[in-house]
């Protein structure tokens, strides 16, 4: 942890330390997106506002993840979770209000991010560096939004 605190960009890359979880760092690393999205919603940011913030955080995340990866000397290390935070924030921007909707969004995101169905896996294997780290999670987020849209149409 001291290593992270001495490198603020790596601290962000590790999701404020959540990526240090000994098991399922991606799952723990996704958690900071929940209060962040809740705070943005409480401050009056709507779906489009949060989407713009997610886009800006994506661009910043390319740099953060690339820097963290180079500092570690390990390609796409599992503890780098800034990508999970940003992608989950994008998902929550368009998730209907309600506890169970957020639970469903979280579970679906973790499922798509872990399983990496095509084309997520294809991009994950071929696009590297900070952009590659960020890209596969954004694609997983788009899959989640598609599934959530279908579920919304069925239950609404």
TrEMBL record:
It comes from Vitreoscilla massiliensis. It catalyses: a 1,2-diacyl-sn-glycero-3-phospho-(1'-sn-glycero-3'-phosphate) + H2O = a 1,2-diacyl-sn-glycero-3-phospho-(1'-sn-glycerol) + phosphate. The keyword Lipid metabolism applies. InterPro entries: PgpA, PgpA-like_sf, YutG/PgpA. It comes from the Bacteria. Its main location: membrane. Residues 13-150 form the YutG/PgpA domain. Pathway: Phospholipid metabolism; phosphatidylglycerol biosynthesis; phosphatidylglycerol from CDP-diacylglycerol: step 2/2. Its cofactor is Mg(2+). Keywords: Cell inner membrane, Cell membrane, Hydrolase, Lipid degradation, Lipid metabolism, Magnesium, Membrane, Metal-binding, Phospholipid degradation, Phospholipid metabolism, Transmembrane, Transmembrane helix. It is a multi-pass membrane protein. Its EC number is 3.1.3.27. The chain crosses the membrane at residues 35-65, 131-155. This is Phosphatidylglycerophosphatase A. It is an enzyme of class 3 (hydrolase). Lipid phosphatase which dephosphorylates phosphatidylglycerophosphate (PGP) to phosphatidylglycerol (PG). It is found in: Cell inner membrane.
């Amino acid at each position: 942890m001291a290593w992270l605190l001495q490198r603020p960009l790596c601290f962000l890359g590790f999701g404020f330390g959540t990526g240090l979880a000994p098991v399922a760092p991606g799952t723990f690393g996704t958690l900071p997106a929940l209060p962040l999205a809740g705070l943005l919603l409480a401050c009056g940011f709507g779906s489009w506002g949060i989407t713009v913030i997610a886009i800006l955080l994506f661009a910043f995340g390319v740099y953060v993840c690339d820097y963290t990866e180079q500092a570690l000397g390990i390609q796409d290390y599992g503890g780098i979770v800034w990508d999970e935070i940003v992608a989950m924030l994008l998902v929550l921007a368009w998730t209907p209000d309600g506890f169970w909707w957020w639970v469903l969004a979280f579970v679906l995101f973790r499922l798509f991010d872990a399983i990496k169905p095509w084309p997520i896996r294809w991009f994950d294997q071929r696009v590297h560096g900070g952009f590659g780290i960020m890209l596969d999670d954004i694609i997983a987020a788009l899959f989640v939004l598609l599934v959530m849209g279908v579920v919304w149409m069925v239950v609404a």
